[in-house]
Specification:
The chain is an alpha+beta fold. The protein has a domain at 27-96: Pantoate--beta-alanine Ligase, Chain: A,domain 2, CATH 3.30.1300. The chain is built from two helices and four strands, in the order H-H-E-E-E-E. It has a four-stranded antiparallel sheet, covered by helices on one side. Strand 1 (52-56) and strand 2 form a beta hairpin.
Length: 102
């Protein structure tokens, strides 16, 4: 009877371990996350508010800037990482474009 309980506990713990280890970010998704954050950071610090696309190791990073409804000073920045038409990671945020020239 004790052996049966140990076997059931071992079986459950191994299935939980396998599910947890396979459900996390893959190395490819981690790289996509890093590339998206880098593109976002470069866009905001360098104020490069243009649409562009870059490719790194088979991962395509697409950045789009679109108008936000209701305000000409607000834009929507969207950065998405794709691999073979499959979205790996993406971010979208509303940003304020400084329209005053120094």
């Amino acid at each position: 009877m004790a052996m049966l309980i140990v076997m059931i506990a071992f079986g459950l713990s191994s299935s939980i371990f396998i599910n947890v280890s396979t459900s996390g970010f893959s190395p490819r998704k981690k790289k996509a996350h890093t590339l998206v954050n880098r593109m976002r950071y470069e866009t905001l610090t360098q104020q490069r508010f243009i649409e562009e696309s870059r490719e790194f190791d088979g991962i395509t990073i697409e950045k789009t800037i679109s108008d936000y409804d209701g305000s000409s000073a607000l834009k929507v920045l969207s950065v998405v990482a794709k691999s073979q038409d499959k979205t790996l990671f993406g971010t979208r945020e509303i940003i304020l474009i400084n329209t005053l020239e120094p």
